[in-house]
Amino acid sequence: MYEVFISYSSKDKTIADAVVHTLEEYGVKCWIAYRDAVPGVKYSESIIAAIRETKIFLLIFSENSKESRHVKNEINFATKVGSVMFPFRVEDVVPDDSLEYYLGATHWLDALTKPLQNHIMRLKDTIKAALSHDISVAPVTNATDTIRSGKLRVVEAE
Length: 158
Hints:
Blueprint: E1 4-7, H1 13-25, E2 30-31, H2 33-36, H3 43-53, E3 56-61, H4 63-67, H5 69-80, E4 84-89, H6 97-103, E5 108-110, H7 116-132, E6 143-148, E7 152-157
């Protein structure tokens, strides 16, 4: 059974692969479309089933994912079924109004500075903590909640 659904733009596949590799190296089973969509099943049906099955919806947020209608559809459905959202911002962009509606009150993890792997490790720790506590909202541990660019709430490591 998968624990984390990875939502990302295909243009950010390298980042998504690094996140999946690290999470799975530490025992967190991820669902990522290009690898786990079921052959012979409609792509959209595979995605819907995976979002329903997983506890955490991890959004790799970038300008590319912000513009992707597929990512927006995934966010919409994940919200509908009550997935725990983990937006992981890898570029200094903010959601447009359509995404703000779904993500505005969610804590964000930023990965804006190098090296990216340090931020991925922090993400891994946060996801593992969430899964071990069977939480219904994303935890904020050892972090400072700050406001950036208007309404966007960001979690930055101390």
